[in-house]
Specification:
By secondary structure, the protein is α+β, with helices and mostly antiparallel strands. The chain has 2 domains: about 80 residues, Immunoglobulin-like (Sandwich); about 250 residues, Sandwich (Immunoglobulin-like), CATH 2.60.40. Helices cover about 20% and strands about 35% of the residues. The protein has 5 helices and 26 strands. An 8-stranded mixed sheet has the order 17-16-20-13-12-22-25-24, with no helix packed on it. Strands 3, 4, 7 and 10 form a 4-stranded mixed sheet that branches. It has a 4-stranded antiparallel sheet with strand order 6-5-8-9, with no helix packed on it. About 35% of the residues are buried.
């Protein structure tokens, strides 16, 4: 005979109806509160809101296209919207734990804003576009040369400053024009906006021989352009840069083993950089449109392309080299004051110039194609060009791994996930490792 089941206690309200115990009521209420908060948090985390401001007019930018790019697995479009009359937009995040990039297209020009993981709101500034902006000037026009055998290798870099007020972006079909030496063949070309990263940008040949144009927006602030090229060489060459804009400084840089001879009216001054003793620096300051700046170079030699120290042409050590990205030059010791004004441009300016210069020494393939550029391309680090004929062995994998690590480091720095000091130390170490790896490949060649 089974034992009798214990009777469950029932609680009656004054009307006589049964009700749950107070503990059960509070427990269910707590669960409902938690679920409500959790759902609200999830809904909030899945949306990225933002405002687009027209910095030219000071008003909200209405009707602009907004594109959300996910950086978790490469770069994929994960959402698209338009700003409303108040310049506001909302986008659904596919993955709140991955970094995103917000791209705003205003009058055909793109502007970008990083959205690290956890970001729920952003503000993006855009500028009205004009075909011609008067307040644009060239801060520095730098030409670097080195020669090996029957080939002269050069890099021309421009630092262009847009100080328009109110700020506007200049964009037209010949937005920034320049000349290259007779017979020059372009190997790589890059563009970099203020606060951005280098991107591949192919200059367009113009009707006049040896004249090219970057069809790349000149946004407010500084934009840098870099063109690497090579030309046949017989031991000497006459170079006429044919400047199309006034420049604060026109700079020519050569290895010390090469000779420089300026034209009679060029007005160059020789500068000595104590932190790069393997080079000759010639400078013409405050140049004007049409000013003759032709010069001759002769001899052979290569420029130091290593960051953080290394061997010079003569096998000696280069003391006191800076370890900043791109082998940038540090503060001068006893250098003349004018040198300090453009020392950041002497080694090419871009973070990838170190690897580009070293790849010159390693002997790059002349068949490497220059990627096409579209104004909607995002400002993320451009891939360092590698010879197509390079074997896909361990050295090639090492170079690819180093470049990927450089990219990840730049993304983490942009997201604020590492301090400036950590960034500089890691970047210097990666630059030095990359340079040494390329030098080893050069020695084997």
């Amino acid at each position: 005979m089974s034992s009798p089941q214990p009777m469950r206690k029932r609680v009656l309200d004054p009307s006589g109806r049964a009700k749950l115990g107070s503990f059960a009521v509070s427990r269910h209420a707590g669960i409902l509160v938690i679920l409500t908060l959790l759902l609200a948090a999830l809904a909030s985390a899945e949306n990225l809101t933002g405002t687009v401001k027209n910095a030219t007019t000071g008003k909200p930018a209405a009707g602009d296209d907004v594109v959300l790019l996910s950086l978790g697995q490469g770069m994929e479009e994960s959402g698209r919207s338009k700003t409303d009359a108040s310049g506001k937009f909302s986008l659904k995040l596919d993955d709140g734990n991955s970094p995103h990039l917000v791209r705003v297209i205003h009058q055909g020009v793109t502007y970008h804003h990083m959205a690290p993981p956890g970001t729920t709101s952003v503000e993006v500034e855009v500028y009205d576009v004009a075909k011609k902006v008067d307040a644009i000037g060239v801060t520095a026009d730098v030409m670097r040369f080195q020669a090996q055998g029957n080939e002269l290798q050069g890099i021309r870099l421009f630092a262009v400053n847009n100080t328009s007020d109110p700020p506007r972006t200049q964009m037209n079909d010949q937005n920034f024009e320049f000349y290259l030496p007779e017979g020059a063949q372009i190997d790589t070309s890059l563009a970099k906006t203020a606060g951005g990263q280098p991107v591949n940008s192919a200059p367009v040949p113009q009707k006049e021989k040896n004249r090219y144009a970057f069809i790349f927006p000149l946004r407010p602030g500084e934009t840098q352009f870099q063109v690497a090229f090579h030309v046949s060489y017989t031991g000497e060459a006459s170079i006429d840069p044919k400047p199309l804009y006034p420049a604060q400084h026109f700079v020519v840089m050569l290895p010390k083993s090469m000779q420089f001879s300026a034209g009679s009216a060029a007005g160059f001054q020789s500068m000595q950089d104590p932190q790069q003793s393997d080079s000759v620096v010639q400078v013409a300051s405050n140049t004007q449109l049409g000013q003759p700046l032709a010069f001759k170079i002769s001899g052979t030699g290569t420029l130091q392309a290593e960051s953080g120290g290394g061997a010079t042409e003569g096998g000696g050590a280069t003391a006191g080299r800076d370890s900043r990205p791109g082998g940038g030059l540090g503060p001068p010791i006893d250098a003349p004051d004018p040198l300090e004004k453009y020392r950041w441009y002497l080694l090419g300016g871009f973070a990838v110039i170190l690897a580009a210069g070293a790849l010159y020494i390693a002997g790059r393939s002349k068949t490497a194609a220059v990627p096409d550029f579209a104004p909607t391309d995002v400002e993320v680090p451009a891939a360092v060009p590698v010879p197509k004929a390079a074997p896909a062995g361990r050295p090639g994998l090492l170079l690819e791994a180093l470049k990927e690590e450089l990219f990840q480091l730049e993304v983490e720095h942009k997201q604020g996930r590492i301090s400036q000091q950590e960034y500089e130390k890691a970047k210097a170490a990666l630059d030095q490792t990359l340079s040494r790896a390329i030098k080893r490949e050069s020695a084997k060649a």
